[in-house]
Queue: 2 jobs
Job 1
Amino acid sequence: MRKKITGIWVLFALFFLFLYIQHQFVYMYFDDYGYASLSYGYTGNMAGMSYSLMDVLRFIKWHYLEWGGRVFYYCLGILSMRVGLWCVRLVQCLFLLGSTVYSWRLTEAKEDLRGNYIKAFILVFLYGAIGIETFREGIFWFSAAMGYVWPLCTLFAAIYYQKQYHKTEKSGSLVLAGILFFAASFSYEQVALMTATYTILCYVFGRFRKEKRVKGEIFLIFSAILGSGIEILAPGNFVRASDEANEAFFALSFSKKLSVNIPRVLEINLGYDNWISVLVFLLSGFMCAWGILREKKGSFIRSLNLWTGVILSAAVVVSWKLETEWYVCCVLILWILWYTINITLSLWNKRNWMVALFYGGICSQGMMLLSPTIPARAHIPFLFVMNMMAAYVVSELFTRFLSRGMYLFLGMLAAAASLNIASITMGYWKNAEINDINHCKLMEKSFRIRAGMKVPSIVLYRMRDDSYAARMPYHEPAMEYWMKNYYELPQSVHFIWDTLEAYSEVNEIAVSNRPKIVVVYPGDEDRILPYNEDGSLDIGITPEILKDSLRIWIDGEAVETVVGDGYVSTRVPREKLKGDLHIWLVDEDTSKASDEILVKMDR
């Protein structure tokens, strides 16, 4: 017995070691810099990273009132990033390990040691089954993981101590469970709804089944609803919802909103990106139906139920090759209904609290049907719940009825998940060198600027593969504002994004001194030239580095140039528009000229 238990904890220790090594290749992306520097939509911090705990609390207050109620875990994340990248990496590894360990503790059975080992094995490898899009947009994006991933560990821990309280009726377990339910629900809208739904249904199911009443359940419901209410009813949520970008969606009818969002919700939950996980979920549904049939062999209804599941499961796999048309959505919805019925019947008499958690997960996805945006990470709360369900159902039926096929399944899961997670980890590893170079260059330039040196621009490098990084500044230029605050750089410093293959000191100097045209207006894509009423034409140029010494040259002559906010422009008179315009950008301080740009007049 001890060897078996020790083996499970060794597995979890190895899993944590893998998580820690893997996260050494995960860096800060997009709004991570904004939260870390307290500049995400907030102007109250002008000290870069040199802020105090009171500054963090002021930012959290602003965030709650002006942007959203997701402040509890963001506060923890900000403090972690304030310590350093190593700290937020470690915190995330602990949360991921905790969610896995508590999932196992909730599904373990003392009398079934082999089954416990199988559950632990499945849970660990289901982490490796997660798709790249979910990692990129959720787990490996810290500011996203703070809302979608971190609270799940707290929720599973709360349920575990709730179960402990049911067994022992010790007040310590009750108080701890209440605190954890509050912390889990005071996190993010989807997790908040899932937590509140779970506590209510768990109580209702217990009364419906006439189980022994345990004092304190109302306290747990109150804790979950209180945390959910504080999060969901935050003034900032309503401010964000009223943003002009959401007006078009909210103007749609109820049916139109559903027609837009149902395909997306189905795609992120049952789509190809997480194909390994989905196959395990399909198998768990089939095994539920098979277990129901075994209870009453020869039943026509139960046999029909089993074969219906086989057909619908096959249809789910086929849907990966099809567009999400209405008939495909109908089939996927039918599979969800079939799975819900079978998982309910299978767990009702054994662990009805799992049914309550499953329904809570369904609600976390259902609420997205009325959301103006549905990111790929929106399915993460339900994904972790489904991992727990699948591990329990599959291990229970394999150990009881299908022991011969158990090792084949475990081997196939381990192989597929290992290849998947190895590919993802290697992708982030390949980008790690560039992330380190960029970080060191930004730190070095920050020190130079604080020492009084002038640094007009910094050459930084693009990722080798953007599939293994969240949004980057060369895709989202607004992100540079947060990065400059994080590294305590003046906003006037210009970032030049190049490929690593162009790396050299000579290249950095040359690129910085020679003007380079990034965008010219009107461009080739403008089919009709936007002439002014007097027949003149305005020319706008976005340079790589904006300087007051830049001058536009047209057809070999310098013209009057206006330096604007991020661009330079000039007005070309009608009489000079008889032929194509040959345009250069010249830096009068260095006499360096850009490459020629041709603006065709014949459109």
Job 2
Amino acid sequence: PIVVEQTGRGESAYDIYSRLLRERIICVMGPIDDSLSSLVIAQLLFLQSESNKKPIHMYINSPGGSVTAGLAIYDTMQYILNPICTWCVGQAASMGSLLLAAGSSGMRHSLPNSRIMIHQPSGTDIAIQAEEILKLKKQINEIYAKHTRQPLSLIESVMERDRYMSPTEAQEFGILDKVLVHPPQDGEDEPELV
């Protein structure tokens, strides 16, 4: 879709994602693969070059995908200086939930009807040896433990099987900070929370 805006010099037309990027919004929509990862990383780096202090908003609706592509996004999120607000809209499953949890503390959100799912990496994610899967499993468990502040032993136990959570359950687990009903209205400092 194209967004048309009136400016002092006439009309400007943008595709919707370029317009959202101007507002410092990145969309992680669909399966996480190398192509999406490259695009998201480029957007993160671009927004940091524009300002390394202003927050970046990352909206996530993803079933997960490639572990290596997701970890590339994760590493870039941790590398740049900007605070990153993460927002689950729809679902954040597998690698999508890891990116949701990787948002800046106090800035991880979900809409009330979203679903969040965590689990261990599988051999179908990438063509790797069994030893490499064990290393990735350990690495991902440690990342979840870091961002959720849950004991590593609990993360290891929960990650053995697919674990679906409501936004409230994900908040209690430490994957996100807030469940939102609507954005802030004029005159409000904070959005309405569930």
